[in-house]
Amino acid sequence: MTQTIDLENGQKTATYQIENTTDQTIPVTIKAVRRIQKIDGKEELPSTSDLKVFPPQLIIPKGEKKTIRVDWKGDPKFNIEKSYRIIAEQVPLDLEKKKQSDKGGIKMLLKYMNALYVDPGKTKSSLKVDSYKIKKKLYIILSNSGTKHQYLKNLKIKFSKGKSTYSINKEELKLLDGQNILAKTKRSFEFKAPKGLTEGLKVSLTFDD
To answer: Which DSSP category does 134 fall into?
Structure first.
């Protein structure tokens, strides 16, 4: 699930509904963390005081639903979309812990990570090919120098020099559909290099918004 708190339109809260579809009571903790995207797509999730979750923990009886609220408490003066994760995590009941300890088994617990953006308004993505290198494979760094995140869809990358043009295989690029590049962030991807492609060529890209 992805939500945006649109500060320009006066929004300062996001709500989430958690449903327990099991036949047991489930305790859940909820927290908000910053989302820092690394060049390889992995994320760092440090704590933040920009958002307040209420309630931060709750118990959901079987078959019931509960609503949580996330309030924006950060500095109102910024011009770049901020990215966060809202993490809802199932925790074991004390009784369940004792039972598992007696049995010596391991119980898998659920963890959901949702994307939350806080948008100050008038933000826009700006995606380009930052650089590329050819070794055994083609390594491309895409840069979003804009102020808003950008999902990739129907991405096309073309290399050109004079009348010569080279393109990455469509099936390889299709695998990038749904990839997300946050504002002021770079991402690295690798592909099979088109035959005859050399370094130093002009690069252009297109994609669907």
So the answer is: E
Q: Element (H or E) spanning 116, and its range?
A: strand 111-119
Task: Determine the 3-state secondary structure of 100 from DSSP.
Answer: helix
pLDDT in tens, 142-190: 999 999 999 999 999 999 999 999 999 999 999 999 999 999 999 999 9
Instruction: Give the number of domains in the chain.
Output: 2
In whole angstroms, give the CA distance from residue 73 to residue 29. 20
Read off the CATH number of the domain in which 102 is found. 2.60.40.10
Q: Global pTM?
A: 0.90
Residues 96-111 pLDDT 10s: 555 555 554 556 688 9
Burial of 187 (0-12, 13-18, 19+ CB in 10 A): buried
Rg from Cα positions in the chain: 22
Please tell me whether residue 50 adopts helix, strand or coil conformation.
Answer: coil
Are 137 and 68 part of one and the same domain?
no
